[in-house]
Amino acid sequence: MTSIKPFQIDDLFAIDPVNLDPLTENFNISFYTSYLIDHPNLFYKSIEPNNEISGYMMGKIEGQLSKKELHCHITAVTINQEYRRIGLASKLCLLLETIKEVQNTLFIDLFVKVTNTLGKILYEKLGYGVYRRVIGYYGKEYPTEKIPNDEIDAFDMRKALPMDKDKETVRDNGELFNVFPNEVVF
Amino acid sequence: MISESDQEIIDLVDRGQLTYALSLLNRKLTKFPQKSLYHVLKNKILFKSGKEEESIKQNVAILNQYPSDPMTIDILSNFFQDLDMENESNLAYENIIKRFPANNEKLAKIWFENSIEKYDYKLLNKIFMYLNKESKRDYKMWFILSYYLLIVYGDVDEKSKNLYLTLGLKLISNLEDLNNQEIWVYVQFLRLKEDYEMIEGILSDRELDLELQIIFLETLKLNRSWKKLNEYCDKLLFKENFDDFDTWKLYLLSSKELGVAYGKLKPELPSTRNGLLCAIELDKLFDKSTDSSIETYYDKFNNKLCCYPDLKSYELPSTIIDKIKKANIDSNLITLVNNQKFHKSLDNWDIYSKFKHLPVAEFDSNPLNDLTIESINDLDSVRKVIMLSHLLASDPFNYKLKLYLLQIHSQLNSNDSIIPIYKSLKIKMVQHENLSHTLTFSTFSKDSLSYFIDIFRFYLTSRQEMINSIIDAFNKGVYNKLPSFIKFGSNLKNSISLNFTVYKILQTTFILNDTGYTNYFSNYLLKNKKLIIGEWTDNRDFKTANYARIDTHDTVIKLKLLIYTIIFETKENEVNKLFKFYNKMISHSASFTKFENLIFKLYYNILKIVKVKSNQNEMDSLLNYITKNLKIDKLKQQGLIPENVLSSDMSYNLSNLIELIRIIEFVNKKITSVLRKLNLDQLKSDIKSLELTKLQFDAIDKINFEFPIEFDFEPILTDFKSSIHQSISNLINNI
Ligand SMILES: CC(C)(COP(=O)(O)OP(=O)(O)OC[C@H]1O[C@@H](n2cnc3c(N)ncnc32)[C@H](O)[C@@H]1OP(=O)(O)O)[C@@H](O)C(=O)NCCC(=O)NCCS
User: Fold this and answer.
1) Model-level ipTM above the cut of 0.90
2) Which residues in chain A have their CB less than 8 angstroms from residue B310's CB?
3) What is the CATH number of domain A1-105?
4) Counting C-beta atoms within 10 Å of the first and last residue's C-beta, which end of chain A has fewer, N or C?
């Protein structure tokens, strides 16, 4: 029985069951506040009875329209284990597409570890496809050569939005396009 | 802009390097005798060197000369602030702003930025009043919002609240073309006034963000505007696919109010989770039996973990209870887990044996352990530790097992095991605020000290981050996030977890005799006296996986911080104030153990001898009490070693005792030699001969290590014993 509510900074006191997940990042406070300030509508949570937080979405808008790069980026989507596999993450992602600010952009993108097959499937089901492979995205050191390494590479996945009428911001076979991390900064 | 050499002096003064600062300052003063910054800095040095009255007098004189340089004003204002001279502190800014209106904006903004951390809403209101003179739209909004903050967070009476409400409303209703953020502020006032008609009017026919959408729905319900509510929900649910449970419920309610029949509504509900759960709510709304809807939901979702939390507040129909009973072990694991939860079954070991090798997604927890956690409830703590450690080995990312383990280690003396488990949870940043209380019983070592220092750093950074975030949110007009930013900032500023961290650091440095941080933290305590004595906020998470609540000794922490502060404080009147507070606290604390009582009595005597003036007779009798009681037999009589030797009271008492010894040694070395007569060496050697580890090992040997499942528990037991050994020796070896 999920309802969607805006995220507030003091929710950080109540999201341990979500954030104790080993794959969920915990950021410093100003990281969260910067999203709340600059993209208040793209940071929301799903709640269950008793206001238990079952998950949340953190997104931002970035890139320039003139370069055909204006898009919404999913920074985090994560679900409390007790509420997984019932389509909640999918729902939080789809909800983004109904938000005006997002609709005014060309595509939504996100990064997923190359080895995170489940994450990749999840997004594929939602209509995302791999746009490019970011070499060494999760690595400790900046890569010097474009040699794929599943452990530290990320897939940059995209879904084109109606604004991108000619589907110029997505492509097939994106898994074969290797780029350096600095090429995915907007 | 402040010059590098001036900044150097300011830093030196802040760090307490007064003599050097003064020499640099005097040189500056010869060159620039008129510069007020140097005078206020000199007064700060005077103050810090004990010449309080003189420095206050001189700073009041400077105040009356209206210095206008922002840095001088800031230092002056803080000087008075630290002395609780609120009025003078504000006048430092206010005088200038009033006198030189041209400077108004710049200075008032600095005043605002420097005042945020006070979380003083009256002050904010006053500052924004001055800023509002600039007649800029943003400042007007800030001023208006500050009335709202005053009403909801300020410590003000009803009459003032009504006044602020009227003022705020009047100001905002004069503004035109409000954006959604401004509308949000407007609506908050109207909610306080309970003027829902007006809210409805304002929010109708607007494009609403989620925040306003929720308020609009709630308002339509309160106004019983059923048709409008129904249409709005219809739009959200069916046209925009906003699948939201609260909206569904409002849709059903408004439909019913509009006379739509049950039979027409039921088929409208989709067979999604929200839809099926709404069907149950629909039954309730029409006073019908919920049985069949609950069953439909159960049949579809019994193989999902949400089934139990979703249904647990409803009464299950007998048909489901039958299904649960009949479900055999060949069912799906998650179905069985749910069933056992509904059934509140404690015997889950058959299911465990069957499914223990079933793989789960790489980083997921095994749902099976939701059951085993319940099943080990009856075991004693030592066997719990062993079982939990065993289960964790094959479910290494299960945070519930880890938190449970932390809770059980906190009941025992295996303190050494605590930080590694905590670290394995990858707890970071604000999670420390929520969860660091699970470190209450962590061991005393160099590593744990540096870990607590790391935690403390989080507070230093986040404090500044919150200030910057609040400024940023004001500047960008994100009003609907500001009240929670402000609440969050003020909750973080003086929380139990922060004070716990400071205490752990001090206690560990004393126990380890590691003086590296003493200076910093003694300054910290003296600077934050008001916070130590004041109310602490509690943001700790005692809900998540709370199987055995940890005794966090909150009052003890406060008393100990008070003791440290008194020890470090050099000003007599301050000492007396703090000591009074200490007495009041111990006389109001009914829940101390015998041993804690003794410890605090001893501290009372020590503080009285060392810091509070007493006559010789009194001194003798105070000292006599300490001498008599700081003997091992006496301490044992008062419960130094708990009846259950495995209980964490053992290391807790021992650490309290060693800390006390260390504090006496510190006093002897740094403050006065009156306590030198105490024979601490004897006591120390007596403590060392207590053989506390052996006592515990003997008790462990008596445990019958039977477990509900078979496994090789010996290696875990060996680790557990070595953790006890290490934890006790960490304490004993340090005396
Ligand atoms: C990844 C995560 C967000 C998925 O959340 P969720 O609400 O369970 O996802 P959904 O129910 O919407 O799943 C949609 C689809 O993704 C796939 N999927 C998701 N989790 C899966 C799992 N553990 N195993 C197999 N498939 C999975 C399935 O195909 C699923 O559809 P299905 O259930 O009909 O088979 C959640 O597991 C999580 O919070 N993980 C930790 C944080 C994280 O990794 N986030 C970022 C991922 S890039």
Assistant:
1) yes
2) 1, 48
3) 3.40.630.30
4) C
